[in-house]
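Record 1 of the preview.
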Amino acid sequence: MFAIIKTGGKQYIVSPGDKIKVEKLETPDGEEVVFDSVLLFSDKETQVGAPYIKDYIVKGKILKQGNGEKIIVYKYKAKKRYHKKQGHRQLFTEVEIISIGKKAAKKTKSAASAKKKVSATAKLSLDTAKLSFAAAKLSFAADKLSLAAKKKSPKKETASKK
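->
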C-alpha cells in the first residue's frame, strides 16, 4: 500500500513506516500531522484524484525539526572582479508515516443538525438582504421626490441693477 501526497509544494511517495523529510511544518515535535492532499492511493486497486482524493488521508508523527546540509551559492562574473559567496541551510521536518486510509465517517445526526443550522442562517441572511433592499428602495424614492420638489418650486427672481 502506498500513496502520493503533496506538501510544501512537493510530492512524496509514502507508505506506512516510511520516514520522509518535508518542508518545515509549524507543528511541534511528537505531534500528529494529517496530510489531506492525497493525489494517488494504491492498495489492491489504484485511485487517482482530480486533483485530490477527497476520502483519503495520510497520518504521520513529527520526529524532529532541523536544518539540511549547507550548500554554497557562489556568483562570479568573468573579468569584472565580482565574486560573491553565500551559504544556505534549508529548514525541514522529519515525519514518520503512521497510516494511510479513509477519513472517519461523520455522524448523521450532526450532519442533519448542520443542515438545519445552515438553512436557519440562510433564511436569516435572506431576510436581512430583503430588508437592505427595501431600505435602498426607500432611499431611492426619497431622492426622487426631493428632486421633483426642487423642479416644481418657483425660482425667486432677483432685481436687476440699473
